[in-house]
Amino acid sequence: MIWTNYHGHCKYCDGNFAPEEYAKRAIDKDFLAYGFSSHSPLPFDNAWSMKEDSIQNYLQEIELLKGRYHTKIEIYTGLEADYIEGLSSPSKLKSKYNLDYVIGSVHYAGVYPDGTRWEIDGDTRGFQTGLRTIYGNNIKKCISTYYRLIRDMIEMHTPDIVGHLDKIKIHNIDNVYFSEFDRWYQNEVISTLKSIKANGCILEVNTRGIYTRKNWQTYPSRWILEKAYELKIPVTLTSDAHHPEEINMAFERSAAMLNDVGYRRMTILWQGKWQNVPFDQKGLKIDVSNKDTKLAS
Ligand SMILES: [Zn+2]
Ligand SMILES: [Zn+2]
């Protein structure tokens, strides 16, 4: 089965292994292309971002892999760039480090009175504390801020790919905080989709919640993908891999779901440009002889 994946972490951030281990696994699995997207460095400490002084080694190591394996796979250099108002901009990081692409993600959606940033996808207790302290337990205000930040990112710091659009649902198990069918929630999501469309971004369909058993659906949920399909928003399937085993986890069922929604093509970075390629649950429908012609040199 031929796949691609542009959302992958490694030892430079919170992944488990050297970049080469992911590249080798991608070759074993007949991937057409693999993109590295470590968490971008931030001007404060956290448990998962790359350290600022590691980034040159990260870039060099991936550059070496591009050359070492160029007859077998296309390797791309990216970052999962945080958007934090005034502190971290996906588009600026892309040009600063001359990246092939950037995934823009919002992981922080508030600030505690002492200046500490609040992570929306940390542990449950941290989520509850932030919701209470920063938003007075007003979930609507919290979620609206989250989606407003994503729209600000898309409109002013435009990334190539919008990362895990509805990740804030991670703590909403059994709809404890809200229902995705609430009108106000759907309005926030739909206006964010319109912003994605207007700014020419690709929406990622991220399988990590499924195989880590945190969610039964992709990020974003199926109903959001149905709206995205109506709006003709391009999608790309990613796994947000942290371990080499995870590079195509839950891809088959998620590709089947996307076909069921109506999507027949996904957008991949191949031969140096974003292209719309047909797919089904068995992978990308690309003529392998063509692939070999291109990749053999
Ligand atoms: Zn993320
Ligand atoms: Zn990630």
Automatic annotation (TrEMBL):
Residues 6-207 form the PHP domain. It catalyses: L-histidinol phosphate + H2O = L-histidinol + phosphate. Keywords: Amino-acid biosynthesis, Histidine biosynthesis, Hydrolase. Coiled coil: none annotated. InterPro entries: Histidinol_P_phosphatase_HisJ (IPR010140), PHP_dom (IPR004013), Pol/histidinol_Pase-like (IPR016195). Its EC number is 3.1.3.15. Pathway: Amino-acid biosynthesis; L-histidine biosynthesis; L-histidine from 5-phospho-alpha-D-ribose 1-diphosphate: step 8/9. Pfam families: PHP. It is an enzyme of class 3 (hydrolase). Belongs to the PHP hydrolase family. HisK subfamily. This is Histidinol-phosphatase. It comes from Fulvivirga kasyanovii.
